[in-house]
What we know:
The chain has 14 helices and eleven strands. The chain has helices spanning about 5-15, 25-40, 45-50, 55-65, 135-150, 180-185, 190-210, 280-285, 290-305, 320-330, 335-340, 360-375, 385-400, 410-420, and strands at about 90, 95-105, 105-115, 120-125, 160, 170-175, 180, 215, 225-230, 230-235, 245. Strand 3 and strand 4 form a beta hairpin. Helix 1 packs across helix 4 (about 55-65) and helix 12 (about 360-375) packs antiparallel against helix 13 (about 385-400). Mean pLDDT is about 75; it is low at about 1-20, about 65-85, about 250-260, about 280-285, about 345-350 and about 420.
Amino acid sequence: MSFPCPLVSRMIAQFSNITSHDSLFERELERFADRLAIDPTANPDALLRQFPDRRDAIGQLIAAASTELSEIPLDGFPPPCKNAVSPVPKRVGRFRLGERLGAGGMGEVYRGISDCSPDAPVAIKVIRPELTTAAIAHRFAAERTCLAQLQHHNIVRAIDTQATSSEPPHLAMELIAGTSLTEHCRRNDLGVRPRIELLIQVCSAIEHVHQSGFVHRDVKPANVLISETAGRSVPKLIDFGLAKRRASGQPISRSRRPTVSRVLGTLHYMSPEQAGCHRAAADDSVDHRSDLFSLGVILFELLTGTTPLDEAWSADDPMPQRIGKVRRQRPRRPSDRIRRRVGKKTSTGEWRRPEFDWARCTKSRRSLDAICTRAMAHDPNHRYSTAQALAADLQRFLETVPVEAPLPSLRRWGWNCARWQR
């Protein structure tokens, strides 16, 4: 690898059964660490099949890349179970496990049936049995603690957060039979107004998370599922596997600048400070405003069909280069992206797509450009102060009243673009 992975090196040194001659395993482990930097839920099946006797080492890597384990107290939960290699049981607690609904890096989600309510299926998230280490179980218990404290109609509801040391770590949640936010908008061919109305509800959920003392750290369309309730589309925020508690008046983390193997989140929706830019490393400014940046990226995608970084790198770019672009990114106007994508070729019908309606109106274009660029400001101090403030500005746009986000002048914007190119 052209870029060192200190986390893997330190971890390998701690295992007596891994020698310096295991160069192939070290290489593959380091590659998987880079995959985790892109997606913390990266599936380790291939690595486990190649090195079945290294399950403990692989589990330690995933746990270390997820988060520092001591930042969320367990609030009385019993100690997690030790290493376990048994297959997934047919039941956990008072739930019978049915079909598997999905899988990620650490957990698998099953349809569950409660003994008390057989007609009300739930979603059961369990740790992958081959990766059930004490460290990962501790991280999983922290996620249960977080979700148990969140009560909001736009956040997935925890059904059962109790656990005993004799049971496999699990989390029972309401079952949401829906698609992701962006997929829902595409399938239903939604215009800009219903898209923004959905995002306002997501902002309400994020505000509740922040008011409860947590930062989500992985806000993206895939973690917002749309459920149909009484004929209404209701977004539900899910997956709190990367959430951390933030003490009152204190930053979310005081660790050093993250390396490639320690960058947590999804790069396309990640704020510069979460990726470890120099400014954030100096003043420890990774806090709730990082989630606001991610909301700005989601708004950008809802308006243009792409994320700001979709055109920034190719599939062949090495991970350090991608993370560097995340750290240096500056806010982009969604109208510029649409202009470059479709230009003046109206014969293709691109301009008639519902999500592009706003770009044809100068007033709408300037207002949404201003909201997007403020939410995605490189400096956290220049963003909205809260998710509620972002939602209020989006509501002003829907009510056709002036937004609070400053409308940048053409001269100022041109100067910023020239500076960015340099």
